[in-house]
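Supplementary Methods, section 5.1.

A reviewer requested that the exact input to the structure prediction be made available. We therefore reproduce it here, unchanged from the version used in the analyses.
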Amino acid sequence: MELPECPVCMEYMSAPIFQCQSGHSLCNTCTRNLCPPLCPICRQAMTQIRNWQLEDMISKATVPCPNKPAGCVYTMVNMDVDDHLKECIFREMTCPLGAVFGKCFWSGKLNGMLDHFKERHPDNLSADANITINNTSITTDDRHMYLVAQNKFLFIISFKIDTMLKMAYWAVQHIGGKKAAQQHIYEISVTSNQDSRRKAVFTDHCFNDAMDANEIFRQAKCAVMPLAMMAHFLKDKRLTFSFSIKRNNPGFKKGPGPDGENKPFHNKQKGPRSQSKGPHPQPKGPGGNNFQGQNSGPHMHKGPGKGPGGNNFQNQNSGPHKGTFKQNRHNN
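The structure derived from this sequence is encoded token-by-token as follows.
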């Protein structure tokens, strides 16, 4: 069913819809603009009686995206339009840096964002997989954002140091739809500037830009590292990390739950009399991130513990379980 039209302005009807004493219904815009509040069809007084049946029909009608003139080809139930507009790639967008730091007022379409960063924010445009952050420390709050273009997709990498929670965060977001975001896997690899053999690696699926990065940090649904641990990765106030983003591969399977997290799975082969199984899936801690040490050196955690943000730390040699975010250091 298509949306009904207002008998006055001939535009699509939208809730709330009020009726006059004779039962005529007008769109919300026309009703607000009536002065005096008389029905333009029968001249009877307008009432505060809602046309609930018509509103329900409108909510279930199939409509095209309002950005159809710009190129969007999606059609959807009318009640889903607002959610779609939050992630429609043809919507009017603002500069991601301006939204966080308030120093840029650019707005435009997605196809113009990359050129905007090249012109106005070249230092925040990452063409390399390695990023170095200078003049940072574990005693000062810090925030950085980078735009990454890959295979015609745009991604935002956000880094934050929160001295109150004593945690550092990395999040990778896809500018676009939620479904496309969850089809991409990112990996953050933090290498120590004190000892290149020490490394921490985290892998997860992307969120899209409709979700606020601060909310991702708050829920710890991203790479998380305690500042006490990050101190062993800093040298001369310099932090180095690399990233990679790729499409979902057969080694990851969308798991149950509202977040649709990707978790590793293993193929099973059955023989006539025996069955071989791969290693058990790796568990996650309450915060969704597990840290581990391999061949721990003097700065590594020696046993299981729990830090803020619900992250578990574990030496690989202390138990059978392995985490996703692990710290590697090889002995000479």
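The chain has eight helices and 24 strands. These observations are discussed further in the main text.
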